[in-house]
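To close the section, here is one more complete example, presented without commentary so you can practise reading it yourself. The ligand is magnesium ion.
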Amino acid sequence: MSLSTAEQRLIPPIDRIDLVVVKLPFVHPFGTSVQTWTHKEALLVRLESGGVVAWGECVADPDPFYMYETTVTAGHIIRDFLLPLVEPGKTLAEMNLRFSHVRGHGMAKAAVENALLHLIALQEQVPLHELLGFPPRRIPSGISIGLKGTPEELLVAVEQAVAKKYHRVKMKIKKGKDVEWVRRVRDRFPNLPLMVDANGDYGLNDAEHLKQLDDFNLMMIEQPLSYSDIFEHSLLQKSLRTPLCLDESLLTYADAMAALALGACRIINIKQGRVGGLIESLRVAEYAAARGIGVWSGGMDETGIGRAVNIHLQAAPAFNLPGDTSETSNYFHEDIVDPPVTLDDEGFIAIPPGPGLGIRVIPEHLQRYTISGECIRS
Ligand SMILES: [Mg+2]
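Output:
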């Protein structure tokens, strides 16, 4: 546990703060049980300090279908409530304590925290994972395959993922596209580390139906029940052999404690933005991993900035299962950063070397995909 070092870092003087919204087309539309997205729209926090420029990506979507926060609400919370609490000379721990007066809005908080950690890492000339206290390691990859029109299309996507040597494959499911679709994939790939994610599409009265998934030796069923439920997941977990994994239901450390105490899941998906930042993510991850729970890093189809943050975070050994970090080319023909995320021939991802995130924002690409920009302070 090395959090204390990152948390005790002082907030540097900040010369300029901008909020920038980018919108990038996806290579393929990404479909879940709640929404299909054709573009990635992301709010970016840009900080400038002594000639150093740092970035934080807010993982909120433009709509409230995955989570209540949106790019617009995050901009409002960051501009009007969080930035006034960011005081140079205070520690990040003190800042997070101040942030706790703002209830919820973890994605907005994380974007500010991410940008500050990026800035401090750049100024100290260390990689982000080192600032967080972890030596580099090869990160196992995982892919999340969105809902497809036909099982054949799904099989093609799974085949491509297997050829790339992804360490595990997740397929989205929803009512009407579940048991038979999983059966088709399992028949074709009997030994593939495979899991499903329902994004809350089912109710407890679907328990008998969901029990059929026990036949397929899945690694886990992610978020089968409501985004706001923990208790009913504990009832469902008792009736299933397959481990449940919670995503949407866990917004805080306290949520994770409740879920584990109730036996609502055996695995948790940590999206660092969803729980309020990297420091909070590490706290949740270490708490869960120490109790024998599987922990992995989820994704929000981030641009290269947020994708790099997830990669650095996974240097922490508490992330003990492959996450949702996949190749950039799976999402974007053109990203706003260099270098793109790629897999080696064993399906691992190398942490980009160098200070900060180890990536470079490409000015021309940033300009091409920017749909709005606002200077908050200069
Ligand atoms: Mg999920």
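Once you have examined the tokens, check your reading against these statements. Residues 197, 199, 222-223, 247, 269, 298 surround magnesium ion (CB under 6 Å). Residues 3-128+361-377 form a domain with the Enolase-like; domain 1 fold (CATH 3.30.390.10).
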